[in-house]
Amino acid sequence: MDEIINGLGGGNIVLLLLAAFLILTVLRGVKIVPQSEKYVVERFGRLQSVLGPGINFIVPFLDRVRHKVSILERQLPTASQDAITSDNVLVQVETSVFYRILEPEKTVYRIRDVDAAIATTVAGIVRAGIGEMELDEVQSNRQQLISQIKQQVADAVDDWGIEVTRAEILDVNLDAQTREAMLQQLNAERARRAQVTEAEGTRRAVELQADAELYAAQKEAEARRVSADAEAYATEVVAKAIKENGIEAAQYQVALKQVEALTAVGAGEGKQTIILPANALDAFGDAFKLLKGKV
Predict the structure, then answer these.
(1) How far apart are CA 100 and CA 130, in angstroms?
(2) Is residue 15 included in any domain, yes or no?
(3) Which residues does 44 contact at the CB level (< 8 Å), separation at least 6?
(4) What is an example of a Pfam family matching this protein (predicted)?
(5) What would the pLDDT profile of 135-188 be if each residue is shown by its tens digit?
């Protein structure tokens, strides 16, 4: 009886051990990879495969997950490096780089410290790029410099299985002496622009004044021409009247003008005494005579 019990107990242990082995085999052979990671699998120390997100199967006890690599986008710490422009100005550039790992097998086997390697690469590219530009170009063409840095960094880290998604130049700082010199230059440029603007305004005012005088002269000439045309027309009418009615028409017009002139003199304000020429009454008489003659 004891032997039977001992036999059953020994069988249960074997079954338990077998079940435990199967469970362990399943756990070692089935790998569930998160969406944000990739697993690098080795077999006897050599690269075997790269597991993507989801359920994956490997050979238990032979294959091992050696590296769990995040494929999320990463940001390098803000770095600051000194650079000298082509016009010998020392600037301090603050940069930031964003990247993500696309091929973990290259990243884990070709480079030890990814962040430090990218930071060193960016520093060298920034110094080389700024060294080919003047200070004004660095300030005004920052976007072009950013594109250049991103492209060169992307080419440099391509063998590491990394994609550079964005590169930024956060700030370009100058030393105090350079800032003071730039401020003086800026003030001088503002003064020059003010003088140019004032000169342009003076020139424009002279041009407008000349245009106004020319316009006035043209209008005066037009008025004189109109007056001359009127005088010519009046002379033509008088000449025609003389031709048709004889010299009496001319004498009548002269006498009428004399009467109108005397009337205008008499109508003036503040005139208590009117001095008439000696032949003024004769003018009235001549006018009436001519009028009677015409009637």
Answers:
(1) 26
(2) yes
(3) 62
(4) Band_7
(5) 878 877 788 888 888 888 888 888 899 998 888 888 888 777 777 777 787 788
Structural domain boundaries, residue 8? 1-70
Same domain, 216 and 191: yes
